[in-house]
Amino acid sequence: MKKTSNEQMLKACIMFGALVIILVIIIGIILKYQVEGEKNVPFYLAEMNVISTAEGVGNQEATEMRWNMNIFQNNDIYLKIAKNENNKKAEKIEKVAIENLQITKTPQKGTIQAYMPNSTEGRTFSYDEQYIFQNQLTYTGSSKSDQQNLEIGNQGGMIVFRISNTNIGTYQSDEDEEVIHNGTILNKINTTTEEVQFEVSFDVAIYLDHNVYRTNIQLTLPTGNIAEEGTSYIEKKDMSNLVYKRYFLFNE
Question: Does 35 have pLDDT greater than 50?
Answer without folding.
Answer: no
